[in-house]
C-alpha cells in the first residue's frame, strides 16, 4: 500500500518534465537536438532514481504515510531534531568536510545513523549523499520506519549500527495492540529499553582507535538513574496520556519530540551553587556544578559539541568588571597531531573536560574585588556553546543555511544559571 502514492508522484513528475522538454524543443528547434538527447538521458536517470526511491519506500515507508493515523506522534516527531537529521546546514557542511578531508573508505558512514536505511542500500550511497546535499531531501533521515523496523541491538559491538527486520510488521511497545489495515504490529521489549537508542547513540567512528575514550555517553550503565531503572525514554520520550492512533483509545503514549537541546528537559540538567569569599582586594567564587545527567554532558559528537560555564562580575552601576569561562568538551588531535573539531579524523584525545555522568565539579575563579561599589553581582551561567571550527567550515554553514549567520548553531543554548549579590560593607 505504501508504494502506490510514490509511483504516482514519480509518474506525474516524469510527465511534467517530458512536457517541459517538448516545449523547449519546439521553441529552440533542431539545433538543440543534442540537448534533447541530454534530456532523455537525464530523464532516464531521474526515472531510475525515482524507481530506487520508490522501491526503497516500499520497505521504509516515508513518515508522511503514518501521519494519517498517527497524527499526534507525527507532529511531535516533525518538530524534533530527528526529523531533520540530514537537513541541517551543519550536517551538510560537516558531510562535505568528511567527504573531502578523509580517505573516506566508508562513504556511507554519516548516514549509518542519520539515515540508517542506508545500511540496507549500500549501492545507493551516492543517492543519499546527493539528497542530503540538495538541502531539501526527499527521503527521510530518522523517520518512523527507521526506528520501528529495528528489532535488535548488537551490544557486543563497540560500534553498533541499526539492524532491521524488514517486512510488514512494525515493532512497538504494545503487546495488546489493536489491529489495523495498514500494518501488522508486534511488541518488542527493546522499545522500552535504552538499547534501542544505543544503536545510534553509543559511539561514532573516528580515524584512530580511541577505544572507550570516544564513547558519547560515558559510563551511563552505572549511573544512579540507570540503577534506578531509568531508560533513555524516561527522560527523552516522557510518557503522557493520549491517543495511540487517531480515534483509538487513550492510553500511555510516549512523547516523540525527543527533548534535548530543544525543550524544557534542559532545566533538569544541572544545579549550580555559588560560594563567594571576599578578602580585601581579592575575591574568590567557587562554583559547584552538579550534573544531573546520567551520561556525558555534552555528548561529544560532533567534535565541536561544547558546554561553557561563564562567570560575569558586575560592579558599580552594573558595569561588567570581570568575565571568565571554563569549557566542558573534548579536544581531538588528528594524524598530524593538530587539533581538530572533526571526530571522523580524530586519532587521539588531547583534552577531555566533559562532565561525566552525574559528576559534581568545582570551579574556582579569582578576581579583583570591584572598587567604589556598595556591592557586586556574581552571575554564572551554563550553556551549550555555538559551533566552532575552521573558518571555511563556519562560512560554509553560513552559506548553506537559509538563515545565514542567524542559523541556530551560531547561538548559545542556555542550560542553567545562578546569581547572587555580594554586599561589600
Ligand atoms: C537510527 C539512529 C537513531 C536511533 C535508533 C535513535 N536516535 Fe536519537 N538521534 C539520532 C540522530 C542522527 C540525531 C541527531 C539529529 C540531528 O539533530 O541532526 C539524534 C538526536 C537525538 C536527540 C536530540 C539531541 C539534542 O542534542 O538535542 C535526542 C534527545 C535523542 N536523539 C534521543 C533518542 C532516544 C531516546 C532514542 C531511543 C528511543 C534515540 N534517540 C534513538 C539517531 C538515532
Ligand atoms: C553512530 C551514529 C552516528 C554516526 C555514524 C554519525 N552521527 Fe552525527 N549524530 C549522531 C547522533 C546520535 C547525534 C545527536 C547528538 C549527539 O549525540 O551528540 C548526531 C548529531 C550530529 C550533528 C549535530 C546535529 C545537526 O544535525 O546539526 C551533526 C552536524 C552530525 N551529527 C554530523 C555527522 C556527520 C557529518 C557524520 C559523518 C562524518 C556523522 N554525523 C556520523 C549519530 C551519528
Ligand atoms: C528514534 C526512534 C523513533 C522514531 C524516529 C519514532 N519512534 Fe515511535 N516509538 C519509539 C519508541 C522507543 C517507542 C516506545 C516508547 C515507550 O513506550 O517508552 C515508540 C512508540 C510509538 C507508538 C506507540 C504509541 C506511542 O505514542 O507511544 C507509536 C504508534 C509510534 N511510536 C509511532 C511512530 C511514528 C508514526 C513515528 C514517525 C512519525 C515514530 N513513531 C517515530 C521510537 C521511535
Ligand atoms: C490506517 C491507519 C494506520 C496507519 C496508516 C499506520 N498505523 Fe500504526 N497503528 C494503527 C493503529 C490503529 C494502531 C494500534 C494502536 C493501539 O493499539 O493502541 C497502530 C499501532 C502502531 C504501533 C504500535 C505497535 C505496537 O505493537 O506497539 C506502531 C509502532 C505504529 N503503529 C507505527 C506506524 C508507522 C511507523 C506507520 C507508518 C509507516 C504507521 N504506523 C501507519 C494505525 C495505523
Ligand atoms: C534522568 C534523565 C535522563 C536519562 C535517563 C537520559 N538522559 Fe539524555 N539528557 C538528559 C538531560 C537533563 C540532558 C541535558 C540537557 C538537554 O540537552 O536537554 C540530556 C541530554 C542528552 C542529549 C543531548 C546532548 C548534547 O550534548 O547535545 C542526548 C543526545 C541524550 N541526552 C541522549 C540520551 C540517551 C541516548 C540516553 C540513554 C542511554 C539518555 N540520554 C538518558 C537527561 C537524561
Question: Can you offer a commentary on this structure?
Answer:
- The protein contains 12 helices and 16 strands.
- The chain is an alpha+beta fold and 425 residues long.
- It folds into 3 domains: 2-59; 64-254, no CATH class; 264-423, Sandwich (Immunoglobulin-like).
- The strands form 6 sheets. A 4-stranded antiparallel β-sheet has the order 10-9-15-16, with no helix packed on it. Strands 7-8-14 form a 3-stranded antiparallel β-sheet, with no helix packed on it. The protein has a 3-stranded antiparallel β-sheet with strand order 12-11-13, with no helix packed on it.
- It is globular.
- The relative contact order is 0.10.
- The model is unreliable at 1-34 (pLDDT under 50).
- The site of one heme C has 21 residues, from helix 5, helix 6 and helix 9.
